[in-house]
Amino acid sequence: MKQLTIFLVCCLLNVSAFAQTNYEKDLISSINALSEQIDNHPNVEDFYVKRSEAIFLLNAIKPWQTWVAFTLADAISDVNNALRLNPDDASLYSLRAEYKRDIHLDLRGAISDMKTAIELQPDNPQWYFQRASYRKLIYGCVDYKQCADMDDKRCMELMREVCVKEEPLIQ
Fold first, then answer.
1. 129 band by pLDDT with thresholds 50, 70 and 90
2. How many domains is the chain built from?
3. Under a CB-based contact definition with an 8 Å cutoff, are residues 55 and 86 in contact?
4. Most CB atoms within 10 A, among 57, 76, 117, 168?
5. Distance (Å, whole) CA 25 – CA 75
6. Measuring CA to CA, which residue among 19, 22, 83, 99 is closest to residue 48?
7. Which of 58, 73, 121 is nearest to 94 (CA)?
8. Dihedral sign, CA of 23, 26, 30, 36?
9. Residue 65 belongs to domain spanning
10. Is 149 within the bounds of a domain?
11. Cα dihedral angle (25, 31, 34, 35), rounded to 10 degrees?
12. CA-wise closest residue to 131 among 105, 160, 109
């Protein structure tokens, strides 16, 4: 019975790896097709947005692979291009803020983008909620640092995972 269980687990892992490989191929095909559309129609905002989302997903499933042809910086670049075409679209600032937060842990940049989204659509509660979640991360780092200074291993780990490294903490 134990051998059958091990065999089934191995089969499931192989199927999962195969499905993920096909998913990766589909994402790469989508990125390439969208790149061709952008080459042919450089003024269509939606092509940049969709390509940025595909690039983000591709990097999310294989974050440890540095050889990926499409980098997370490319995702932000595509959103920047979409913003160049439509600078008054608050959802684009929100998308870029998500990427800044998830990709670079650029929380201050993410908050700045959310400030712009709020200026463009002050009646949208989602923008306030999103900005609040980023602010919580920054201000939470002050407490994580205090706790880590007391040699608490949990706080040290959270500081490494969550907190902005290059910039001073907000007091």
1. confident
2. 1
3. no
4. 117
5. 18
6. 83
7. 121
8. positive
9. 2-137
10. no
11. -120
12. 109
How many angstroms separate the CA atoms of 169 and 171, rounded?
6
Asked if residue 92 lies in contact with residue 79, where contact means CB atoms within 8 angstroms, the answer is yes
Tokens, residue 67:
């050889």
pLDDT tens sequence across 6-35: 443 344 334 344 445 788 888 889 999 999
Rounded to an integer, what distance in angstroms lies between the CA atom of residue 160 and that of residue 147? 13
Among all chains, which residue has been given the structure tokens 């908050």?
A: 111
pLDDT for the residue 88: 97
Please state, in angstroms and rounded to a whole number, the distance separating the CA atoms of residues 135 and 55: 26
Pair 112, 85: CB distance under 8 Å: no
Q: Within a 13 Å sphere around the CA of 51, how many CA atoms are in the beta-carbon half?
A: 28
